[in-house]
Amino acid sequence: MQGDFSQIRFNRGKNYTAVLEQQGRVALDADANEQQFIDAYESQTRTIDAVGQYGGPAADAGFQIMVPGDNEIHIGPGRYYVNGLLCENPADVTYDAQPYLIIPPGQPDAGSLLSQLNAAAGKSVIQVWLQVWQRLQTALDDPCLREPALGQADTTARLQTVWQVVADVVLAPQPQPGSTDSAPSCCQEMYATPAPPPSTGTMLASTTGPAAECGCGPVAAAGYQGIENQLYRVEIHNGGSEREATFKWSRENGSVVTAISKVSGSTVWVSPPPPDTNLGFQVGQWVELTDDTFELGQPANGPGNLYQILGTSPTDTDPFFTLDVPADQTLSVDPAKNARMRRWDMSGPAVTPTGIPLSPGSAIDLENGIQVTFDPQPTSPVLRPIGTYQSGDYWTIPARTATGQIEWPPCGSDENPAQRPTSIQVFRAPLACIHYAPPTDANPSGATVDECRKIFNPLTTIAPPTTVEALHVTGISWVNDDVVTLDALVVSGLTITLDLAPTPDCPLSGANVIVTLELLQSAPFDMLRTATVFDGAVALTGSVITWKLQANVDVMTRLIETLNPLLLPNALDRQWVRMRIRLPGQLIYATGSAAPAYLDGRALGKPGGNRLDGTPRIGLNLPSGGNEVATDFDGWLNVAPILQVVAVNVVNPRYPGDPLTVTVIVDFAGGVTGLFVTGTNPQHTLPTNGLQALVSVNYPVLAETPVTVDVLNIDGTTNGAGTIVPAPASIPAGGTSVSVPLNVVGNPGVVPGQPPTAFKFSITASVPAQIRWPTGASTNPNTPLVVTGALPTVPIRIE
């Protein structure tokens, strides 16, 4: 807002709701304006909460798009809200005659848009948008704001909501490549269009010390050296990256502006005349010339053209200014379109007709000790992204003589030294899509219009919700859509927790607690499933429903013997049998306070993270319910086989085919130092941990799984206990085996005066499971691991 303000201050993060005056205190424009910002923020927020991001009232929804056949696009009267801002169109208006849209030469009007649509013959559509922003209006823009009794003095300014209906011809929506889904509707595509990204560039303001040479006046030791309080404005002129953008600055917040009454060659006449030298225009100053074409064209809020003043009129009765206009250019402003001349205060050789380059990372002097640095280098050694800017982005820098400092970071900011700019926020709302259609007598325009507006009813017509007394699911014992092994399911069963009151008092059985197992078929029909209903044991304890497979041990044994092999083939490919749990809402009830209360079990899905096997799963939002009389509860889990050890093979990594017969190598003290291996290959030695037990399980494990390896004498005695110590080991997630080092640390069967004894060991392994079905497998009893002891080496003494 380029107004004559002392400063602009508002921070919604502080949660201020009112500005309160105190007796005998000075009244500031910044305080009154902050109250207006607070009120506007609360009003817009309430509107968004009630209406949504976009919406028109059902009784007077405005901005309906029509193509009646006169080669024009019509905009219907009424109201529409965009991001909490009220947009009003008082009467039907054509696209080309909108009050706030100026179509520059070369840009399409309604007729050319419709011609392009007809020429595309169905391959393109016209997307119609309502775009909205707010701008500052002064007495120059609205003479009614000026009080004649005050002469040329102006008083307050106004904030105006500006709306434009804009349209573009784009390709008709197409389905995604490789997708079987149909193409999205044009309206869906418009609502899915992201908003333009915000500016990412930053600016740092600071002050320097005094100059080496000073004039006659006093100079502050450091900081701001001006003699007046000012609100400096730094504004981006041409947008782009930090290497392309340019800026301009003003010590008066860009508020020194006058109307242009006439243009001739390189001379402009202004009215009213400047009030004084301080708030007027001088030779050598830079000015920006604009009219409504720059602000209300496409794109909106474009920058004007910068020129330097070469000369001024000798009298104030008919003031004019001669500008430095290149010979091949003319002044492209129209006094009939609210032409304006605005002063900017930059000077020096760095200033060009396109502004001042940003020079990212370098300090740029403004005046009176004030410097600005665009995109300053970060203090930490990180790669800084390239900053981007939009035309009209601005920063304000309050400078105060009482302190000799500038207020930076400004009050109300996030306190970072490098501040992002304030941008003109232009909000866009989809209105309609216009499609080509062959002209007919009923539709002479040859176009059809898809309505994209959102309509809302008055709050007075919305009936208050009625609360239905019902049962709700508040918790389940399983992780929905995750994987559970059969043994865990057998031991724990399933539990479903309902509200504490009322509690079900209906019979519960497999009829209303329905558990279904979806078994996968064998290849090549493994994409098919067969549903099997399980009549488990159902019980109710308080408000908790429990379901288990069976309580009868014999029945359970036969069931597991049958079911576990059916789960295994697909588990090798990490495909699981699905178990569904369903509670019909109309069949589970309790005695309510006035009428029976039924189960309102609808639970909406949500992202649930990953299953144990790493694939994504669907979670459930609990407690359930949608304020319905009766809805079903649905949940599911995936059942994996009981994890079993299927093989334990002891191998010699050097010669895997060797017989598993070793003799320990000991030192003179009897300590084991290695292993001597005999076999068909050359006899050789191994370190004490040179043998390994390869443990294999029946399918890829869901998560890292520890393996327990046990070593037993094959004769069933404890002879040789402690001779072999397996190392700790785990099967990694998704793996089916692990090699466990066997560390031979003992010298078995050595009795003084007798030959060493050979012991035969069996190696078994197991994995954690809640039931053993069957027990862990072991090595082949016919080829056990044979370990023979050795007598200590007797050292020979030579004298």
Uncertain segments of ≥5 residues (pLDDT<50)? Answer: 212-220
State the distance separating the first and last CA atoms: 108 Å
Tell me the strand percentage band: 25-35%
Helix amount? under 10%
Class based on secondary structure composition and strand pairing? mainly beta
The average pLDDT is 87
Q: What's the total count of β strands?
A: 52
Task: For this entry, give a set of tags.
seven-stranded mixed beta sheet, 4 domains, 799 residues
Tell me what the structure shows.
This protein has 799 residues and is mainly beta. The chain has four domains: 52-197 and 426-456, no CATH class; 203-209 and 221-406, no CATH class; 470-640; 645-788, Immunoglobulin-like (Sandwich). Helices cover 9% and strands 34% of the residues. It has six helices and 52 strands. The strands form 13 sheets. A seven-stranded mixed beta sheet has the order 45-44-43-52-51-47-49, with no helix packed on it. A six-stranded antiparallel barrel has the order 13-14-17-16-15-18. The longest helix is centred in the first third of the chain and has 23 residues, at 29-51. The radius of gyration is 42 Å and the shape is elongated.
Strands, helices and their partners?
Layout: H1 29-51, E1 54-57, E2 65-66, E3 74-75, E4 78-82, E5 85-89, E6 93-94, H2 110-120, E7 124-137, E8 158-171, H3 186-192, E9 203-207, E10 230-236, E11 240-241, E12 246-250, E13 257-264, E14 267-271, E15 286-290, H4 292-296, E16 305-312, E17 320-323, E18 340-344, E19 356-357, E20 363-365, E21 370-374, E22 388-389, E23 394-400, E24 405-406, E25 427-436, E26 447-451, E27 455-456, E28 470-471, E29 473-476, E30 483-485, H5 486-492, E31 494-498, E32 514-520, E33 529-534, E34 537-541, E35 544-548, H6 553-571, E36 577-583, E37 589-590, E38 597-599, E39 605-610, E40 616-620, E41 633-640, E42 645-651, E43 661-666, E44 672-677, E45 684-686, E46 691-697, E47 705-713, E48 724-726, E49 729-731, E50 737-744, E51 758-766, E52 785-788
Parallel strand pairs: 1-27, 28-38, 30-41, 43-52
Antiparallel strand pairs: 1-4, 2-3, 3-6, 4-5, 7-8, 7-25, 9-21, 10-12, 10-23, 11-22, 12-19, 13-14, 13-18, 14-17, 15-16, 15-18, 16-17, 20-21, 23-24, 25-26, 29-31, 31-35, 32-33, 32-36, 34-35, 36-41, 37-38, 39-40, 42-46, 43-44, 44-45, 46-50, 47-49, 47-51, 48-50, 51-52
